[in-house]
TrEMBL record:
Signal peptide: none annotated. This is Malto-oligosyltrehalose trehalohydrolase. Substrate binds at residues 247-252, 311-315, 381-386. Pfam families: Alpha-amylase. Keywords: Carbohydrate metabolism, Cytoplasm, Glycosidase, Hydrolase. It comes from Corynebacterium gallinarum. The gene is treZ.
């Protein structure tokens, strides 16, 4: 790596290390802390790797754990690249999370070309939709050419098939010039199974399993260097790539009981860079713990994260519209649950979770916690792709039902996020796909998912094989819209426009007023009131006045409104 004048690598495990540089083998000398150094200075264009001696034999040449570019994939040589780039975003002053509209996308399936350039081509479309930030699913290198990205193994690099480091910088630069912030989904809770050589160098993991891989060593012996490895990655995304924020995958799987938790260290790093550059940098955590400490300020004993995903609001909304009640949906499914969840963010705030068989969660302080810190959605990559066949809600719901869900999310004060394609009712699936370079890994992955979904009652014959190329290509968005999809898209545009015009992203949770009946809810927020019908027949709700927008045909009276099946109305507050 290029943090000194010479090649160096942290490798306390092997007895000897040598540098393989441009076809030449060069000895290395061990220094303090398990670091090895070679008498060679990195030059742009160098291709290199390391060979490790375990006391018996030398390994094959393997990549640098801190590699910044892998032109030939995770099993190939690392390449030295220049950090320089002709940035044109000097006028960019950043975007804070409050008031943002996030659009989550997978680079490989978002466009026909499946790369960063393909995202650039649709920035005008996203801006017209009302999007202010794109969130890229992980782009760190993984085995093969097709992957969700959560099997990344080299946390300082960018997948070459998407365009590599230069391609990502081009995308960020283009987004900033379009007034759009860029968030990157990063995975620091496990390493992928294909191409992970880090354990040959040092104890990057500590045993045990997260369900996706071994637990990362952030609290055991030699964990200081592992933490530095992660924090240097965080810093690099912000400083060298000009990213505006990071989405931190499954932070509940971080085994960290230290006095200065890694998440808090990340917050300090982001705030330090923001102070130095004058551009805000945000951290959004994914967690299933319903723990408000994630977004509680550091001064109040929290981690100081700027936001976190909220699955409970999704679950409450999804069950009402779809009727599904299996698995973790068991405790959701009526308007009272949706109303209380919208009001207090989490459904489980200490009571028993049927799915978990234990008490779960903790109540947030609604009087001091801004609504913008909670990211909500009608669906996301998990809630779509972790279904057996990757079917989207738009493949099972009517346009009215789709817009009803969107109206609830966009009329709430929380930070909204769209998952690519939902805004026009995409009918292509988003299935789980991978292309591990090891056939046995592909077989095990496929069999594991088949067993999992078979237990839930799915026909194994219908479950797509993750490693089949067709599973990936079938998941690509189709950008040729039908008239029905054009209507859905216009509905999304209108709702996002009204969100801005009616001031519905206001931060004060206590100013939101929610009521409900057996089949309906109302939500007064900002300058509007949303009334929504979650039944398949007409319902009269005790709110009327001036109609601002509806996707269906409600009858709005002075003191009440008759909503048609799965209809909603946005009224003047």
């Amino acid at each position: 790596m290029l943090t000194s004048m010479n090649y160096r690598v942290w490798a306390p495990r092997p007895e000897d290390v040598r540098l393989h540089l441009n076809g030449e083998t060069i000895p290395m000398t061990q220094t303090d802390g398990g670091w090895w150094i070679a008498d060679r200075e990195p030059q742009v264009g160098d291709q290199y790797g390391f060979e490790l001696f375990d006391g018996t034999e030398w390994s094959k040449t393997v990549p640098d754990p801190r590699s910044q570019y892998q032109p030939d994939g995770v099993h190939g040589l690392s390449e030295v690249i220049s950090p320089d780039f002709a940035w044109s975003d000097d006028a960019w002053t950043g975007r804070i999370l409050p008031g943002s509209v996030i659009y989550e996308l997978h680079v490989g399936t978002f466009s026909p070309s499946g790369d960063f350039d393909g995202v650039i081509e649709r920035l005008d479309y996203l801006k017209d939709l009302g999007v202010t930030a794109v969130e890229l699913m992980p782009v760190q290198p993984f085995g093969g050419n097709r992957n969700w990205g959560y099997d990344g193994v080299l946390w300082h690099a960018v997948h070459s098939g998407y365009g590599g480091p230069t391609g990502l910088k081009k995308l960020v630069d283009a987004c900033h010039n379009a007034g759009i912030a860029v968030y990157l989904d990063v995975v620091y809770n496990h390493f992928g199974p294909d191409g992970n050589y880090n354990g040959m160098f040092a104890p990057y993991t500590a045993g045990g399993s997260t369900g996706w891989g071994e637990v990362v060593n952030i609290n055991g012996p030699d964990s200081d260097e592992v933490r530095r490895y992660i924090l240097d990655s965080v810093t690099r995304w912000f400083e060298e790539f000009h990213l505006d924020g990071l989405r931190l995958d499954a932070v509940h799987s971080l085994d960290d009981n230290g006095a200065f938790p890694l998440l808090e260290q990340m917050t300090v790093a982001s705030e330090t860079i923001a102070a130095a550059t004058g551009i805000p940098r945000s951290l959004i955590a994914e967690s299933d713990l319903n723990d408000p400490r994630l977004v509680t300020s550091r001064e109040a004993g929290g981690y100081g994260m700027h936001g976190q995903w909220v699955d409970d609001i999704h679950h409450a909304l999804h069950t009402l519209v779809s009727g599904e009640r299996n698995g973790y949906y068991a405790d959701f499914g009526d308007t009272a649950t949706l109303a209380s969840t919208l009001e207090q963010v989490f459904h489980h705030t200490g009571q028993v979770s049927t799915f978990r068989g234990r008490s779960h969660g903790r109540e947030i302080r609604r009087d001091v916690t801004p609504a913008s810190r909670f990211v909500t959605y009608t669906t996301n990559h998990d809630q779509t792709g972790n279904r057996a066949v990757g079917d989207r809600p738009s493949m099972n719901l009517t346009p009215a039902q789709q817009l009803l869900k969107a109206a609830v999310i966009y009329c709430s004060p929380y930070t909204p996020m769209l998952f690519m394609g939902e805004e026009y009712g995409a009918t292509t699936p988003f299935a789980f796909f991978c292309s591990h370079t090891d056939d046995e890994l592909n077989r095990l992955t496929s069999e594991g998912r088949t067993r999992e979904f078979a237990r839930l009652g799915w026909d194994p014959e219908t479950i797509p094989t993750p490693s089949e190329e067709s599973t990936f290509t079938d998941s690509k968005l189709d950008w040729a819209f039908t008239p029905e999809q054009e209507a859905i898209l216009e509905g999304y545009r209108t709702l996002l426009r009204l969100r801005r015009e009616l001031g519905m992203s206001q931060p004060d949770l206590l100013s939101m007023e929610i009521s409900h009946g057996p089949e309906w809810i109302s939500m007064a927020n900002g300058g509007g009131i949303l009334v929504a019908n979650f039944s398949d027949s007409d319902v009269e709700v005790p709110f009327g006045g001036e109609l601002i927008y509806s996707f269906t045909s409600p009858e709005v009276r002075e003191d009440s409104t008759v909503l048609d099946a799965y209809g909603f109305a946005v009224l003047r507050r």
